[in-house]
Design a protein that fits this description.
Length: about 210
Amino acid sequence: MDFRWLGTVSYADGLALQNELVEQRHRGEIGDTVLLLEHEPVYTIGRTRDQTSLRDPGGLPHPVYEINRGGQATFHGPGQLVGYLILDLNVHGRDLHEYLRRIESFLIAFAGSFGMKTGRREGLTGVWVDDRKLASIGVGVRKWITMHGFGLNVSSDLSGYEAITPCGIAGVTMTSISQESGREIPVEEAAGSIQSFIRDAFAPGAAI
């Protein structure tokens, strides 16, 4: 599994790179690849007619991208670690439910390394600290090659979420590793530390 730390990139550039790598992975030109990065501020939403989670689409402070993942609106921006997983599910099992649970599992394990007790909530994809949402997950699959992935809040600044209803969940409170751990964690530090957790989650026989 190849990990690439990209620093801060625009959403358009990140999406173009994903599309290129998906085709390369499908042709067998590269192995499984994980992009770790921060985005310039942006909102994304899945392909859905219901866009009420954007609240005021004409008055948002940042651009909006409609993309080929599931789910309602979320925010990406500085202070959030984004992970794009370009994996071949012919290798890891053609089971999208299990794939989502594996993403949750490595995020839960990673948060645990900071002394945080996190978990899942029934019927809701993502990772939670009690009723506070720490990480959002949205994936796309093309020819059984995955794209998109997770947004893990690292910084204590969560103001980017104020203009939306995150993931369409009314009343949800967002949280971050820095808020929960009581110390400010640099995103690049988190990007380096999370790699072993991702690798372990997709090792043969790994528990979900």
